[in-house]
Amino acid sequence: MELAESDVQIQLSRRRPGQSALATPRDEKDQVAIQSGLEHGVTLGTPIAMLVRNQDQRPHDYSETDLYPRPSHADYTYLAKYGVKASSGGGRSSARETIGRVAAGAIAEKYLRQAHGIEIVAFTSSVGKITIPSTPSPTSASSTAPSVAPSEDDAAEDALSPEFREILSTVTRAQVDANPTRCPHAPTAEKITARIMRAKESLDSIGGTVTCVVRNVPAGLGEPVFDKFEAKLAHAMLSIPATKGFEIGSGFKGTEVPGSKHNDKFVYKEGRLRTETNWSGGIQGGITNGEDIYFRVGFKSPATISQAQSTAQYDGTAGQLAARGRHDPCVVPRAVPIVEAMAALVVMDMLMIQNARNGAVSLLPPVTTLPKTMVLPKSNGR
Amino acid sequence: MELAESDVQIQLSRRRPGQSALATPRDEKDQVAIQSGLEHGVTLGTPIAMLVRNQDQRPHDYSETDLYPRPSHADYTYLAKYGVKASSGGGRSSARETIGRVAAGAIAEKYLRQAHGIEIVAFTSSVGKITIPSTPSPTSASSTAPSVAPSEDDAAEDALSPEFREILSTVTRAQVDANPTRCPHAPTAEKITARIMRAKESLDSIGGTVTCVVRNVPAGLGEPVFDKFEAKLAHAMLSIPATKGFEIGSGFKGTEVPGSKHNDKFVYKEGRLRTETNWSGGIQGGITNGEDIYFRVGFKSPATISQAQSTAQYDGTAGQLAARGRHDPCVVPRAVPIVEAMAALVVMDMLMIQNARNGAVSLLPPVTTLPKTMVLPKSNGR
Amino acid sequence: MELAESDVQIQLSRRRPGQSALATPRDEKDQVAIQSGLEHGVTLGTPIAMLVRNQDQRPHDYSETDLYPRPSHADYTYLAKYGVKASSGGGRSSARETIGRVAAGAIAEKYLRQAHGIEIVAFTSSVGKITIPSTPSPTSASSTAPSVAPSEDDAAEDALSPEFREILSTVTRAQVDANPTRCPHAPTAEKITARIMRAKESLDSIGGTVTCVVRNVPAGLGEPVFDKFEAKLAHAMLSIPATKGFEIGSGFKGTEVPGSKHNDKFVYKEGRLRTETNWSGGIQGGITNGEDIYFRVGFKSPATISQAQSTAQYDGTAGQLAARGRHDPCVVPRAVPIVEAMAALVVMDMLMIQNARNGAVSLLPPVTTLPKTMVLPKSNGR
Amino acid sequence: MELAESDVQIQLSRRRPGQSALATPRDEKDQVAIQSGLEHGVTLGTPIAMLVRNQDQRPHDYSETDLYPRPSHADYTYLAKYGVKASSGGGRSSARETIGRVAAGAIAEKYLRQAHGIEIVAFTSSVGKITIPSTPSPTSASSTAPSVAPSEDDAAEDALSPEFREILSTVTRAQVDANPTRCPHAPTAEKITARIMRAKESLDSIGGTVTCVVRNVPAGLGEPVFDKFEAKLAHAMLSIPATKGFEIGSGFKGTEVPGSKHNDKFVYKEGRLRTETNWSGGIQGGITNGEDIYFRVGFKSPATISQAQSTAQYDGTAGQLAARGRHDPCVVPRAVPIVEAMAALVVMDMLMIQNARNGAVSLLPPVTTLPKTMVLPKSNGR
């Protein structure tokens, strides 16, 4: 495959700190240099080593953590796990490790785009309580459908508003990047900006959600039982630092919708079976059906805040800890390329597994003894 | 380890159909027989084979699916994946495969209880829009905290109400099983019963959520980066049929809470560091901290409903499909032991990995050259 | 894939005890019944469960092992590993577990034959000191090349005699099965028969070697570094009970041959690069080159013998143990289908991995920027 | 664990080229620098990155391979696998990759020594036809036991001569390194030196074998069925470049010995069950029994030789290739630390797996209901 450092750099630059006033002032260039696996701009099949040097490290920023396990950080749990800890910084629990994910994901993504036309676009769907209208978000129901009297009987027909569906179907990375919040819905982006600035000014932090859509994934990816496509996605997303939740398709909101409304009926169009609606989020029974895959990931408010916190030291002594490091008041905008990267890696993995199966089947003599109800009709374009 | 079929049967019986009027009338006895791995009631270290025979199968119930891929089922995606499908039933995409999970989980659970005093209790936390007060549920905010004027600035202080926290800390399986809904909050259970009966009567179905708490897990479980404890949990939960979402600790609701309120400050009690609050859900940086682990799993409304649905046949012909099989109007109560089982398997896996590490460390000569800030103080009881 | 029980039975019947006077009189029918994964004689992509019932078990045969760990058996090591042991028999350390390998291998083999024309043929190449002439066997050198004065300087030009090469290139299973010894070289088969009968009469046992050839394997299978094709083969073969050694291609004998004679020069024939000789055994740098893969596996003399042995009891008491079970004086003839099965499984695994890669590459746009010395010339037929 | 670069360097220096006149004149310093995972000389539990820079690379040495796939190298097979190849050198198929194995193995080895007193010593046991007396080697029988009339009936009682057993029991790395051949048997070492020098002078190469002993491994390591200890060892050894064979314990020679002589009878000494002989090589039924593990690995003659070879170019044109690179006439002495490293990694892996199990068992309440014949007697010291 043709590959250049620029294919990777573009996503690293979207992840790096210091992109806007909304993010940490640490100005890490995060320039990638490919060390191996390429010649003449073509991958050789050998491992691709990539090097990103840390150019703005200030280890003394972390000195206070000699005494304190930072609240809601991994300092204490790593110490409990290993019995020993590095003298500074969070090591592998620092979100800085996500550079590797983004770099690898960018390569996977290039392949998926070239070979299958797959598009992966993530965006900020909420920050704090501010959310794109009708995102399947905890508090959206009341604010976006005020005229519908909420009742226990109602299906949440508005879980995916037409406005939100439109974003899912059409949003591009250019649209996402048009605003530093990476929220492609302008009125919401404006409110999110204010919310993040307020967190910053109050030496506090705020969380939010990233929604991601993956288009043009072939039907048939994902494995039965344990490695369902959504299970692999959930694993990948919850492995990103600071994540608290994952929803596929209609998600938690969908649990409120009766089956008669939630079911995605089949229709025949464009030479194959499609679904009329897509509450399933492109996955049924753990296996992709060719419709758009979309999911939402929750990120907690960053644990590092500059205001003093009353908390105990490692030895149990009570005290006050105030972080000196430069940190983000909100990680959500920078999390967007990380979510995209992990999504790309999951699609790539599941595709490779299915490739192995498809390649094996393609060499067998045709089977002619089966009832026609057991095989895919010829009228289906797949 | 001592093991009897009754250790397994108890959980299988909680999972089986036909337990109450709320569930499918299929009356599967689901009696387990252990085939290998035991002698004199003690495990031998060899694989434990367990057999559960299907005693009430009616394959003809599924005959209509010869022509129709059932909406929001896996019929179509399995066919797209394999190019061929079984002539009846859903095969591995049927939730009947969860019998194996529950059986395996029951053994893991017995070990965890005996060796570590670990308790795993799951319960129905919502059905449709009916939810235990202050569950971190989509719609709970407005209904349960009416006196607090909702505003974008507010932290969701009520995400875990005292009432809900109390349930998490103390709920037992006996309390859960006291009501067929498996909801341990009596007023909510009553409403849930009505909601499920209504779904049943209208030949429809309804979804909901299961919340699970795991107590007494040692600190230090979970692996850095990709196999964080919550990532493995999310993988396990999203592999259960019909799941749509996963939240750990404060979950999506927690994304709305500023860091200053969301951080779990450390306090010294009972001879070790504990956290004052537990928004983290017992996991920090992907590794357990010894506090209660709790999480929530969303289950969609069952796709199989008895009312007719307009949907296309495999060959594209439009038509009407009405299910004849006997199915649950709501799977949530029966999902409770499945969630417990998968939780037990994850804890067991992560424990085995950490055992390997701890066993290795225990044989090394003591290291004396490290600054004391790099090692766990003796005052910590772990 | 079309599949019938007879596809599996044929190999199980070659493995089963009681086939001839050379083997154990235990007469196990070893009839396979396929339980799942098939309809109308076609595999569905779902797991294929196969059941083989034990029809001639006599557990009391093993009763003496209550007191004695059998010498060179796994009784003691399993007890050391698990701290507990089954009250009778060897459990998973019994070679009876190889039924599962043979059954699975038969399915893999059918696929490989249909899809790639791959042929796998194993045969008895030696028993005790009796060996097919010029097998690369410990003692063959002197007996088969008497006129060549052995000297330290000589290359072992005779390591693969023309006679032996001919067998490798052409031998069929029918030829192998023509003699109960499964040695396709008639004069050697006769001597082997006598050797085994002598072991049987003296209540003793004897070992030997199985040589296996795999023809028509595509070039490009095997993974760099750790999962080289021969490493996976060695792993598979040494996992068969009673194996003591593995050689690929020229093997240990090849270590005596200077590079100038051992190197397989390339020649162009049949539209692609072939090698003139095949000391490499079809694998170079861990990856197949399309030539015949051949290897040899050593099986020790069965540990169970009917003569009394002076050995200690579990509690340390010295004593005399004489086996009462019915056992083979030589396992080599029955090991032939087991070696074939494990070979088939390794080829299948490596093929699936390469399929995943090939499938991925096939969808990329052609790369045009590479110097022609970096790509496979069109004149190569692969 | 305490760890210093010197712990690793010592083995890298034993592997590096240019150590003596017997090896390639490439003078690679192979200095290791530890990049991560350590502070104050103690491992932190985080990944240990080690960097070894190539200081004497001459890529133009390889230029002729632009046209020729080198015979018995991986040039052709890598090209067949990936469809593209690096413009120079062998990439991952170069034995230079074994630096990583040796570095990792040195760390594992330090742990095994500290925690279990495990000793791993490998040595050159043969080069060409020259072998330490009574190594279980192809040609040793006739030359070392001339007075015994060889017959088909004879057991190979001399397979492990007292002389060879003594070496296995006592040999140290200092003794191994006393001679550049790494053969600890002085008369053999002298002949081996001459043999290698002759290969060098004739622009040719020669192979040989490495024997390795691992002492003090706890009983109980290795997994039933597929991951038997010897299967993992065989996998590891055959993954080393240029290997052709693997034998455990009595190996191929042992296949000639009747069971009555080959069985390792149990005796009670030093408070536990030991075996009188050790033909099993410390492993029974795939699981270690606490006796010395010993095995032999065959290395082919290096494929790179300086004399011209008639062989085809990539495009099929016949031609003459003479290597210009600097290469070893015999890799066996330098392979010694590689074999040790891979052995250490296998022991470490199997130990970690058993640790997980032992740790789990240790927390269970004692089982009292089993017949005493099913548990390890107290009189056994394990």
Descriptive overview:
4 copies of one chain form a homotetramer. By secondary structure, chain A is an alpha+beta fold. Chain A has one domain: Chorismate synthase AroC (Chorismate synthase, AroC fold, 4-Layer Sandwich). Chain A is built from 11 helices and 15 strands. In chain A, the strands form 6 sheets. Chain A has a 5-stranded antiparallel sheet with strand order 6-5-7-13-8. The first copy, chain A, has a two-stranded antiparallel ribbon with strand order 1-4. A two-stranded antiparallel ribbon of chain A has the order 2-3. The radius of gyration of chain A is 23 Å and the shape is globular. The interface between A and B is large, with 141 and 141 residues.
Instruction: Provide a count of the helices of chain A.
Output: 11
| Dominant shape of chain A | globular
Would you state the CATH class of chain A? Alpha Beta
Radius of gyration of chain A: 23 Å
Low-confidence stretches of chain A: 135-157
Considering residues with a beta carbon less than 8 A from a beta carbon on another chain, report the largest interface and each chain's count: A-B, 141 and 141 residues
Give me the CATH fold name of chain A. Chorismate synthase, AroC fold
The number of E-state strands of chain A comes to 15
